[in-house]
Amino acid sequence: MIYEMRTYTLKPGCTEEFEKRFAEALPHREKYSKLIAFWHTEIGPLNQVIHVWEYKDLNERARIRDEALKDPHWPPSARELIETQETKILIPAAFSPLQ
């Protein structure tokens, strides 16, 4: 398995609105793959949300992302709330509970 971790840095004061829009669109996205986690920062770099998706491999990720982007309800309409975005592909260690 691989995990895609996305971190969005939002404009100050926009976390609640971003989470609301994400939650509304999430049922449409979960038709394609499973959301593993969703957080927002409370201490450290503020105004960030992080979400993690699970995939079998990079090929599955590419296929699912292509399918999801054809869905008119995904991604949530939130571009004006976002300052930056960072995406990481993570591979769990052999002893990871997510293995």
Structure characterization notes:
- The chain is of the alpha+beta class and 99 residues long.
- The protein has a single domain (2-90), classed as Alpha-Beta Plaits (2-Layer Sandwich).
- It has two helices and four strands; from the N terminus they run βαββαβ.
- It has helices at residues 15-29, 58-69; strands at 2-10, 35-40, 48-55, 82-90.
- Strands 2-3-1-4 form a four-stranded antiparallel sheet.
Q: How would you concisely characterize the structure shown here?
A:
The protein is of the alpha+beta class and 99 residues long. Helices cover 27% and strands 32% of the residues.
Number of strands: 4
Distance between the termini: 7 Å
Q: Would you tell me which CATH topology applies?
A: Alpha-Beta Plaits
Largest sheet, spatial ordering of strands: 2-3-1-4
Helix count equals: 2
- N-to-C order of helices and strands: EHEEHE
What's the number of structural domains? 1
What helical percentage do the residues reach?
Answer: 25-40%
Average the pLDDT over all residues and give the rounded result.
96
Please give a handful of descriptors for the protein shown.
about 100 residues, 4 strands, about 30% strand, globular
Indicate the topology.
Elements: E1 2-10, H1 15-29, E2 35-40, E3 48-55, H2 58-69, E4 82-90
Antiparallel strand pairs: 1-3, 1-4, 2-3
